[in-house]
Amino acid sequence: MPENKQTGKPKLPRRRIQFGLIVTVGGFLVFLIGLRPDFFLLDRSPVLGFIQIAVMLVGLAVMCVGGYICVSALWIGRKFSIAAELGVRVISTGFIIAVFSGFADIFGLGSHPYPEFIPYFGEWQARGFQIAEGFIAIGILMMLPYSRSPLFNGNTPPPEKADSKSK
Length: 167
Prior knowledge:
This protein is mostly helical. It has one domain. Helices cover 60% and strands 0% of the residues. The longest helix has 24 residues, at 50-73. The chain starts with 13 loop residues before the first helix and ends with a helix. The model has no long low-confidence stretch (mean pLDDT 82).
């Protein structure tokens, strides 16, 4: 693993972080196309319909993948902690909540029953989507590597174990 010559710490994989940020920004643009197509002169209806909700969810999925790529690059060859592993699952749970709240009418859980089958993104669906985004943000924060032990960087065993192996 390449190290910084001045500090002796491992270098961050900048290309991977840049790629993750580009994916995240691209996902945000796709999300905006679904949320506000009139910004891009693509507006065809006054309400959010099935296609717009689907595009929003695709954009959210791409943002989740981009965020995962960025934050996982910060671990620099080390194993994820238990909190980071749990954070990945919280991100996935948040996305599933977003899918079910976005497609509530289609799954038969929404306020518009099947005979009037016009998918409608209402107030409760928007709240569910916001809660899902909160779960995703918490999951990303859980994935951050908060502490680094100066004695153990994940590649070499701690000094006690190295001494016992040499005997």
